[in-house]
Amino acid sequence: MYSSDRFNFSSEAPEGLGTAEAELRFLRSVVSQLPAGVTVQDEHGRFILVNDTAAVQLGAAANCVDSVSTPHLDGRRAACREILGRERTVIAEEKVVGERGPQTLLTAHRPARIGDQRVLISSSADISEQKEFEDQLFRAAYYDELTGLPMRRVVEHRADHLVRRGRVDGRFALAFLDLDNFKYINDYYGHAVGDTLLVELAKRISRDLRESDLLSRISGDEFLLLLHPIERPEEIAEFLQALLDRLGAPFFIDGAEVFASASVGVSLFPEHGASYDVLRQNADLAMYRVKNSGKGALAFFSSAMEHEALARMKVEQSLRLAILEKRFCCAFQAKVDIRTEEIKGIEALVRLRDNEGVIQAPGSFINLAVELGLIDELAHLVLDEIVKSIDLINDTFGPDATISINVAAKQASNPDFMQPFARAIEATGFPKRFMIEVTEDAFVTRSHFQDEIVPLLRAIGVGISIDDFGIGYSSLSALADITADEIKIDRSFITDIHKRPRSQGILRAIESLSEALGMTVIAEGIESFEELAYLQAATKIRYAQGYYFSRPIFLEELKPATPLASEARMSLASRAVQENRQAYARSSRYRR
């Protein structure tokens, strides 16, 4: 292999030692100290040569490696005979446990013939650190760091494979699980408890899964469950219902008893789609049907859901276009003192004009605007309309009337919205005229509203009103911890109050506690003289709002020559003589 003219050893060779033997000793020294592990095996798999690095890698001394039997060495011997039989170079990764512990070797095996002997020359490099780094990158790319579950692309790859082999592997189900009210859990208990809940939730879901099933965490509180194989939809429904029942049991985290539930939407292959994307979308639609119907349950996809989704998309597009074209407008409804017949304040109500100019009530778009993140723009549009029309408002309702603006609970707890909105109110020059109306759920979670936003509004003189009180998270004990100026009792308690003793008792309790806490009570939704008469005769409530006094009035309808305060007094006086009338007959030209 080497010639003497390349390596001149004759001058260094000891007396009596030939040049060839010196060269051989030198080459052996070189091979023994190579950084790569080098072995040579004969056609029977016996080790002819093992350098020092290879001895360390193989976990046996170089001079006795052939007398040692380990799974890896036995595997090397068997591989040698196989590779020499095929006479082809092979490169493979090997897992070994040597003197340095578990290692990964990248080994090249090359058959060779030296003289009349066939041998296998093998060279191994330690790639353990590289493999560990690759494994870390792989896990970061394909597995969730918090729960250890596979991520979206893993379940997508598995579903695509099953779709391609549909006739062979049969049916499967995709179940989309979304944790209910996870934001409130994070707000109330803190994000550390929320993270632990996700980990425990993943464990509880995984408990009864088969090896062929796959659970994936695809985003914050969303999970995707692939169930394969399946026979009937009924078995999926039974399994998932049992899963929901398990999730309903409390989680004990850091000394707290945390309750959770999930909404589940299910799509089936091939009935509900012939690709992962379609199946995933349809499971998502089914899950949102559950969310909109009360949460904590499961639903299978149906074609009706697809039609609903298309209709919803149409509304979403028209809503975005309406904001772009500024087709939203304000209507104002008075809050009336039922004792003196004076206007206490007004509530600014946002309305939408559709393409044909017809006014749409907020029920058709407000929830969607909140969900799409468009509600912030609507709040600023309302404020802008008030500022531009303040002179007209003053002429109609009086310069001392408070002006209420509705803010969604999601907005109320978001400092990124509320801080600039408060600055915009202050910039109007009359911030003390404003009242912010929020629903009760803005107060009861560990949100920023009670601790940060309320003091900010107080500092500029803005009042706080609790809207729709009594239908959300409220309780009389919770009311004592709420900092507010005004409580608006939801109309569901006021409707036919004169005929409903239980509602009368609830009303008296709210009235008494509110009086003790110094909060003004406003009755919403007064529509008949009988309801008004009961409030005047049987309660201390001073203020009310509803169609009985005035429908919402649009800016273009405001007439400074006829102040609404005078109109309201005349209306009350004329209606007082109609005590025998069963209900207030609203004019057909008024739309809610």
Automatic annotation (TrEMBL):
Residues 312-566 form the EAL domain. SUPFAM superfamilies: EAL domain-like, Nucleotide cyclase, PYP-like sensor domain (PAS domain). Gene3D superfamilies: 3.30.70.270, EAL domain (3.20.20.450), PAS domain (3.30.450.20). InterPro entries: Biofilm_reg_signaling, EAL_dom, EAL_sf, GGDEF_dom, Nucleotide_cyclase, PAS, PAS-like_dom_sf, Rev_trsase/Diguanyl_cyclase. Residues 170-303 form the GGDEF domain. It comes from the Bacteria. This is Diguanylate cyclase/phosphodiesterase. It comes from Bradyrhizobium oligotrophicum S58. The lineage of its organism: Bacteria, Pseudomonadati, Pseudomonadota, Alphaproteobacteria, Hyphomicrobiales.
